[in-house]
Design a protein that fits this description.
The complex is a heterodimer of chains A (292) and B (366).
Chain A: H1 10-20, H2 24-53, H3 57-66, H4 68-101, H5 107-119, H6 122-133, H7 140-145, H8 154-165, H9 167-180, H10 183-190, H11 195-224, H12 227-233, H13 243-252, H14 256-290
Chain B: E1 3-12, E2 15-25, E3 30-34, H1 41-49, E4 56-61, E5 64-65, E6 76-79, H2 91-100, H3 110-123, H4 139-151, E7 157-161, H5 169-186, E8 189-194, H6 197-203, E9 206-211, E10 214-219, H7 221-226, H8 231-236, E11 241-248, E12 251-254, E13 257-262, E14 269-275, E15 280-283, E16 291-301, E17 304-311, E18 317-323, H9 324-330, E19 337-342, E20 344-347, E21 361-365
Parallel strand pairs in B: 3-8, 3-9, 6-7, 7-8
Antiparallel strand pairs in B: 1-2, 1-4, 4-5, 9-10, 11-12, 11-14, 12-13, 13-21, 14-20, 15-19, 16-17, 16-19, 17-18, 20-21
Classes of the chains: A mainly alpha (292), B alpha+beta (366).
């Protein structure tokens, strides 16, 4: 709730201010409520993660992180993100481009399909791949004959990650590109630019902040994904375990210090993502405020 | 470069935007496409540019068929209604864009680019803004930068979509005179779209009046204004009073009044007479061929005074425009009963459709 200071006559300014504000009690109550919620559901869990992780000292913490299975899990998580993010960057730009700049039949269907990974439970997404590519699945026997393993192997994990993170970039770009229209692109083409030149010199620079924002969110989800990956992974230690799966295994083995230590890595990633996101939002705001 | 447009048709879904448009534009001409919104003028401009493909018909540039030539190869300059400047580039880079995207062997060296951009910015008198970004410019400045950017590629044809549409009245007037002078200097074939009849009449060599996807009339500004071919053109090019009546034996009958007609063919039957507000005299005595009315409103508008009158026979309102001097001499008052004498009545064949009202007669009231 903000009030705007108008140069009103003194006698009336109090009354004016009062009508623009909620009663003090309501204000404090709302602030207190928000604070309690934040502490209970965000700050306390965060604190617990780090105290638990460090409860047996830095040595145990370091040991939990440098243990071979933990390192292999981190490697796999980075690999999955490293494949999924660039692919979804390209898919996302391509999808946003056709949706924002062209009219074609089936456009709304395409928009719905892009949202599908958001609306379907990740576990179901994982199951889809098992039913498709698993040994009992539709394509399973053929894959087995040709000695291709997707499910309970690294490719399956990468596939599931790509599926789950698909909408992030496209969702971020579509409204932005639609708002910008296609006049600038048309201007570039009239001036003799080729399709590529138009894309690199006009379209991409216009959406770069939105794109980066989408990539950051996409990356955070790719590294943190649990459900879909859990179904297709098979939980083979040192082979098909990602960081979130590794945390679960450690926790189930009552090795809570190690579990929290590994979890703290994911938490740090989340904090870095949040920071990057805030900086970006601030930059975008600066950019838009410059315009009259 | 001359442009020929032959039998062009264009539909968007079920909406027919252009219906059999044919138009010749001579090299070096400045032509206005004038019409209300939705009349197809912008579509026609975009088809000339190649941003839109016609469903039927052809476009010839300098006698050569260019219907299927890509926009990029048409050598046209296009100024968009909202300028479409590249927002992340400086003014300098905006103007240089067309030179920088050329294929490597045709791309001029950096020094030539710099020289050329500065020449163009000088031409539009905005060299001092070279390092600014588009969102730091006023509307009029953006417009001129958009023009400089379009001219950078040395277009054979310059196309402008509502070039002054988004500007305020004063800037608009300055800018259109400036555009006219610029055209006289450069002599590049230019076509601009506008819905403002004053703009079209002031700037263009020739005016093409469009309505509902068809060409209503083509002609020099004074031709379309003085000799409108259709009722639509007459009404679109200025304020107009309509009088419903009949024509018989060389007389026009409007209400209870007989106006003697001099010259022109006689079309017996009912007719609509068109009279411009400045072509009506207000008299205090009942002369010949007058219509009784009562002054209901007086509005001074700069150099003229607009007087609204109500016909005493109850057949609607009439608008009359007088010069300030004349109004001061006569000293008309609100509520005064007077007589209207149309100086010039114009009628179009009443029963025909809009497209073929060619046999229009012009009558001068005695």
């Amino acid at each position: 709730m903000t009030t705007i200071a108008f140069p009103t006559p003194i006698g009336r300014s109090h009354a004016a201010a009062r009508t623009n504000r909620d009663p003090a009690l309501v204000r404090w109550l709302l602030i207190a409520l928000a604070l309690v919620f934040l502490i209970g559901f965000l700050f306390l869990p965060l604190a617990v993660i780090f105290t638990q992780a460090l409860s047996k000292g830095w040595a145990a913490y370091a040991a939990a992180l440098t243990e071979p299975n933990a390192i292999s899990a981190m490697r796999l998580t980075v690999l999955a993100a490293a494949v999924a993010v660039p692919l979804n960057l390209v898919f996302g730009i391509a999808a946003a481009w056709v949706i924002a700049k062209f009219e074609f039949p089936g456009k709304s269907l395409l928009i719905t399909l892009i949202d599908l990974p958001f609306s379907v439970s990740p576990v179901v997404s994982g199951l889809i791949y098992v039913l498709l590519f698993g040994l009992q699945g539709w394509l399973g026997p053929w894959l087995h004959e040709h000695d291709i393993r997707l499910i309970f192997a690294v490719p399956g994990i990468v596939l599931a990650t790509i599926f789950v993170t698909f909408p992030f970039v496209a969702r971020e770009l579509i409204p932005l590109m639609q708002a910008q229209g296609k006049e600038e692109e048309e201007a570039a083409i009239v001036l003799g630019a080729s399709g590529w030149q138009t894309f690199w010199r006009v379209t991409l620079p216009n959406v770069k902040w939105g794109l980066l924002y989408g990539v950051i969110l996409c990356n955070a989800r790719a590294m943190g994904e649990f459900g879909a990956v859990s179904v297709v992974s098979g939980h083979i230690r040192g082979m098909t375990n990602t960081v979130p799966l590794h945390v679960e295994i450690l926790y189930n083995e009552y090795n809570s210090t190690a579990a929290f230590a590994v979890a703290s890595v994911l938490t740090l990633l989340a904090l870095v993502t949040l920071a990057a996101k805030s900086i970006l939002e601030w930059r975008i705001k600066l950019q838009t405020e410059k315009r009259p | 470069m001359s442009i020929e447009i032959k039998n062009v048709e264009k539909s968007f879904g079920r909406f027919k935007a252009l219906k059999n448009i044919s138009l010749d534009i001579a090299g070096g001409e400045l032509v206005a496409l004038l019409g209300p919104s939705g009349c197809g003028k912008t579509t026609l401009l975009r088809i000339i540019a190649g941003l839109e493909a016609p469903d039927a018909g052809s476009i010839l540039f300098h006698g050569e068929d260019a219907t299927h030539r890509h926009v990029r190869d048409r050598q046209v300059g296009f100024v968009f209604q909202h300028y479409a400047l590249f927002r992340h580039m400086t003014v300098f880079e905006n103007v240089a864009f067309g030179l920088r995207v050329r294929p490597r062997r045709k791309r001029p060296p950096e020094s030539v680019v710099r020289q050329k951009v500065h020449d163009l910015l000088n031409l539009v008198q905005l060299d001092w803004l070279a390092e600014r970004y588009p969102d730091q410019l006023s509307g009029g400045q953006r417009q001129r930068i958009a023009l400089a950017r379009a001219l950078a590629v040395e277009p054979q044809v310059l196309l402008l979509d509502e070039p002054f549409g988004a500007l305020d009245a004063k800037v608009r007037k300055d800018l259109r005179r400036w555009l006219r002078r610029l055209h006289d200097e450069l002599h590049v074939t230019s076509v601009f779209v506008t819905h403002d009849q004053e703009e079209a009449l002031e700037v263009a060599d020739r005016v093409v009046v469009l309505n509902e996807g068809r060409i209503e009339q083509i002609g020099a500004p004074h031709e379309v204004y003085d000799h409108p071919a259709t009722p639509f053109v007459y009404q679109f090019l200025g304020d107009v009073n309509l009088f419903h009546g009949r024509v018989h034996d060389g007389h026009a009958r409007i209400g209870e009044t007989e106006v003697e007609l001099a010259g022109g063919p006689d079309h017996p039957g009912s007719a609509v007479f068109y009279v411009r507000p400045h072509e009506i005299e207000i008299l205090r005595d009942r002369g010949t061929g007058t219509i009784a009315a009562k002054i209901s409103d007086i509005r001074p508008l700069g150099a003229t005074v607009r007087i609204e009158l109500e016909r005493t026979d109850g057949r609607g309102l009439v608008e009359v425009e007088l010069t300030r001097d004349r109004f001061a001499n006569k000293g008309f008052l609100h509520g005064e009963s007077v007589y209207l004498q149309p100086k010039r009545l114009r009628t179009f064949d009443h029963n025909s459709t809009l497209e073929n009202t060619i046999g229009s007669g012009q009558f001068i009231a005695s």
